[in-house]
Structures are given as structure tokens and as C-alpha cells.
Write a structure and sequence with these properties.
single chain, 150 residues, 6 strands
Length: 150
């Protein structure tokens, strides 16, 4: 662990996961008792399995007009693909600002991550703006969750 805290290793593995390069995928980075706070659902979602379901649905929804939700590295700037545009990290916490477009509509948001001393994500909160984007993401996430759960 560096003096900057375990979040830096956690973020490195998060970006590896988004590129499809993390052995074990989400199981390797999510704490078994992770809490997921969605912009779409009022109640916190508790546990690794439900969090994986929401993150899979989000990847399918927020991938953007030109992306698949797996870029996450700032590439394809100017396209509709999901990409992180800012990152703030210290100690056990990080804020990653993202943007994408869905059906030609701009979506901007943040992922707020908290990790434990081992770098496992213990909490993830997603916030989205503007209101038009929230409405669009809500409808698409609902449909995606129904497909994944069905």
C-alpha cells in the first residue's frame, strides 16, 4: 500500500476490468458485502451478486452510441463511447467523472468508489445528470435488468 492509500491499486484494477483484462472480473474487485447506490433505484443494493447485475446492466446501457461500456480509459474522445474524463483519488475514496451519449443525448455522471485496505470496492455510488439523461438511463436500465434477470 502506498502513502496515497489503497484506492490507487483499486482504480488500476477497475480500469483493467473495464478493458476486459482483470482476471476474475468483478469478483476480483468487489467486496462480498459491497453496497451499490444507483441513480435509478432508491434503496441501496447490498452484496456482490446484485452489484454485478447492476454494473452489467449499466455497462450495456451506458456504453454509449459508439461504445460497449468497456473503454473506460479516455480513448475515443469526441465519440459517443463511455469514457472517464476526470479522476480524483486519495486514501480509500475516488470520484471518476464520465460522459457518454445514448440515443444522441449527452450523459454526464460520476462513479464514487470506496475501498477497504485490500483495495476491494466496498461501496459504489453512481450519480447522473442532466434530468433528460436520468430519464433515458432509467428506461434503458429497467429493460436491461429485466433481460438479465429473466
Amino acid at each position: 500500500m502506498s502513502d496515497d492509500g489503497p484506492i490507487h491499486g483499486c482504480l488500476q484494477r477497475w480500469h483493467q476490468h473495464l478493458r476486459g483484462e482483470l482476471d476474475g472480473g468483478l469478483d476480483a474487485i468487489l467486496h462480498p458485502d459491497v453496497t451499490f447506490l444507483s441513480p435509478i433505484v432508491f434503496t441501496p443494493q447490498e452484496g456482490r451478486e446484485i452489484t454485478k447485475l447492476y454494473l452489467t446492466a449499466a455497462g450495456g446501457t451506458l456504453g454509449g452510441d459508439d461504445g460497449d461500456g468497456s473503454s473506460g480509459d479516455g480513448s475515443d474522445a469526441g465519440s459517443g463511447a463511455f469514457r472517464y474524463i476526470k479522476e480524483i483519488a486519495q486514501g480509500h475514496h475516488a470520484m471518476l467523472e464520465f460522459e457518454t451519449s445514448i440515443d444522441g443525448k449527452y450523459v454526464n455522471g460520476v462513479d464514487i468508489l470506496t475501498c477497504d485496505d485490500d483495495g476491494a470496492i466496498t461501496e459504489m455510488k453512481v450519480m447522473i445528470r442532466p434530468l433528460q439523461a436520468i430519464d433515458l438511463v432509467h428506461g434503458q436500465m429497467k429493460a436491461m435488468l429485466e433481460r438479465l434477470s429473466g
